[in-house]
Amino acid sequence: MTKKYKLLFIKCITAAFILNGCSSSTKLVSENKDPFEKMNRNVFQFNKYVDQKIISPISNTYIKKIPAEIRSGVSNHLQWMDTPNTIINSALQTDMENTILASAKFLLNGLTLGFYDLDKGETVIKKRDFGSTLAKLNVAEGPFLIVPFIGPKTTRDLTGTILDRQNMATLSSDSIDDLNLAEIPINIIDKRGKMSNTIDNIYFSADPYIKIRSFYLQNRRNEIYSKQYIENKNNNLDAEFEKLLD
């Protein structure tokens, strides 16, 4: 094992066990689903303004001017660039089937730098990140946050996002780091285009903040947890939607 990989492994495991050890003390905090609601609402309004004035117009132009085949290739490439995170976290979660499948697909599509899916979608891999790894270690979700320019996160997922980016920086070369940095705005525009209808529906709802919070938490839990856990955890969120309709 090289020094670089040893450092990555130590960082992942150390962070996981520190946060796992804190999970019992943060459990009560996580039950208070939104202790930072006032701050979150202000950040949400800021993000919404940036989205409507800058990101959405650029995304709409991107969709109108760029052919669908090219946009599909860009999306494939961005997903391919993120696959190493899935490989690392699948291994940390001891999901060896997903680790092997993700590794094989990453190597195969590396022949086209991910712009074309040579597998033609036949191999389905589950996207994994360090936030889901922390969840598997029973680290509490923590409070809900709206992060400037990034959007909705839980404190656990925000920690996972930071660690994923650090891990990729540790593994990759300077040229790959520069490419990742350059592709951040492209990724934002690409995702905005894919979620255009969903985001617009959220903006037109009675309380966009509550709706985006519920939308994020339900979808995130669906990615990570069992069906029974999801149903129990989402009962309160469903009640919030009903209140909006009253």
What report would you give on this structure?
This protein has 246 residues and is mainly alpha-helical. The chain has one domain. The chain is built from 11 helices and 2 strands. Strands 1-2 form a two-stranded antiparallel sheet. A hairpin with a 3-residue loop joins strand 1 and strand 2. The longest helix is centred in the first third of the chain and has 29 residues, at 3-31. The chain is globular.
Cα(first) to Cα(last) distance is 60 Å
Structure annotation, total helices? 11
Main β-sheet, spatial strand arrangement:
1-2
Task: Give the helix proportion (percent range).
Answer: over 70%
Which structural class should the secondary elements be placed in?
Answer: mainly alpha
| Whole-number tally of structural domains | 1
Listing every helix as H and every strand as E from the N terminus to the C terminus, the arrangement reads HHHHHEEHHHHHH
Average of pLDDT: 83
Low-confidence stretches: 16-21, 23-31
Task: List the topology elements.
Elements: H1 3-31, H2 37-65, H3 68-92, H4 96-109, H5 130-136, E1 144-147, E2 151-154, H6 155-171, H7 174-194, H8 196-203, H9 208-224, H10 227-233, H11 235-245
Antiparallel strand pairs: 1-2
Helix pairs in contact: 1-6, 2-7, 3-4, 3-7, 5-6, 9-11
Brief summary of the model shown:
75% of the residues lie in helices and 3% in strands. The protein is mainly alpha-helical and 246 residues long.
Main attributes?
single chain, 246 residues, mainly alpha, two-stranded antiparallel sheet
